[in-house]
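Quick one: structure tokens for this chain, please?
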Amino acid sequence: MTNVLPTLHEGHAPMTLQQLFREALYAFEEWETEVTEPIVTFEGKILPISAVFEAMRSCTDIVPNNIVMAVTERLTKPWEGEGPLDTMTFSTAARVMGVLVRKRLLAVNNGVDIVAVAIKQQAAEQSDR
């Protein structure tokens, strides 16, 4: 699958990707008990929120304070960065949210990582070819 999201430029995300990150975060906040991962749309393409978080894993841009608060309120331990909270990068926030998505998926799917199962199945099918 080709990446439909904009790429980072020297560690910096375009504004459209930063806005999509915010939408993915809001979708996570609204996620109730559905088995499937929430989705967002970008240029007519439907994407799971984990794809947005993955795209931002190496972004060095500083996260706005409202997003910092939305991310840190989900942590089970207090946030302890090397600097004040307002210096959290999108990379850190994306990694935290990626873990939270995986944990939620495992919880709602009774400990079965459906994505991992699908990837293994796809790899097996490709090796049979």
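Residues 15-127 form one domain.
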